[in-house]
Write a structure and sequence with these properties.
Elements: H1 3-9, H2 14-41, E1 49-50, H3 52-59, H4 63-75, E2 79-82, E3 86-89, H5 94-115, H6 121-139, H7 143-160, H8 164-181, H9 183-186, H10 190-206, H11 210-228
Antiparallel strand pairs: 1-3, 2-3
Helix pairs in contact: 2-4, 3-4, 5-8, 5-11, 6-7, 6-10, 10-11
Length: 233
């Protein structure tokens, strides 16, 4: 047996298998982030079919990572996989949405209660900068820009608490509510009103008033809940 034959016939090195597995995982994460982005921006809406072949072609990957990404998103509540039909963006009922908003409100309010005593001047300045950027987007009636900065504003507030578990739990609810949240800002004047609420939240944090921060942050989320999914009579 020649050296060439030995090298060709030898079983793959464990490191090579590990690298292939890592690459597959990385591709799955890439696809998952793209699907989440499409849901977040409204490109994919509740009930939409996720075209595996089209998505794989667009991202330059095989359909395997797309399927894996959809299975992962099913576990997180964003996608529903139907046997022999494929993956669909999950549709959330009104009652389920109200419950998600209420849980998100409780977490967001608690974040304000935690952050108010410890928030720094630099953090307040960062929040005001995001508020100002949203004011510009609102004046331009640019919902896409406003929505992206709005997500960053809320995520930044949670990150400033330093409570990673709180931020992760909050993020989970936010992902499920992407299917509803954009609706809260579509009607005329809603971006302006929403950003006025952001300003009041920042003022409460800057005053280092935990109870006021909690109250305003809870109210901000619950107000959005009632605009998007009004209570049934």
């Amino acid at each position: 047996m020649t050296a060439t034959e030995t090298a060709t016939d030898a079983p793959p090195h464990p490191a090579a298998a590990a690298l292939r597995e890592r690459r597959d995982v990385s591709l799955t994460i890439l696809v998952r982030r793209e699907i989440e982005r499409s849901i977040e921006t409204g490109e994919l809406k509740a009930g939409d079919w996720i075209n595996e072949a089209l998505l794989a072609s667009r991202l330059g990957v095989s359909r395997g990572p797309v399927r894996e990404a959809c299975r992962g998103l099913e576990q997180s509540g964003l996608v529903k996989v139907v046997v022999n039909r494929g993956a669909f963006v999950r549709e959330i009922g009104a009652q389920d949405a109200r419950h998600l908003y209420e849980l998100r409100a409780a977490l967001f309010g608690f974040a304000g209660f935690q952050l108010a005593p410890i928030v720094t001047d630099d953090q307040i300045a960062a929040l005001r900068a995001l508020h100002d950027a949203m004011e510009t987007a609102s004046a331009d009636t640019d919902l896409d820009t406003y929505y992206g900065i709005n997500l960053k504003f809320h995520a930044t507030l949670l990150a400033f608490t330093g409570n990673d578990r709180l931020a992760a739990a909050y993020s989970g609810f936010v992902r499920e509510l992407h299917l509803f949240r954009r609706r809260a800002l579509v009607s005329p004047g809603r971006m302006t009103a929403s950003n006025a609420e952001h300003a009041r939240i920042i003022d409460a944090l800057a005053a280092h008033d935990p109870d006021l921060a909690r109250s305003r942050m809870e109210a901000h989320v619950l107000d959005a809940r009632d605009r998007v999914v009004p209570p049934t009579t």
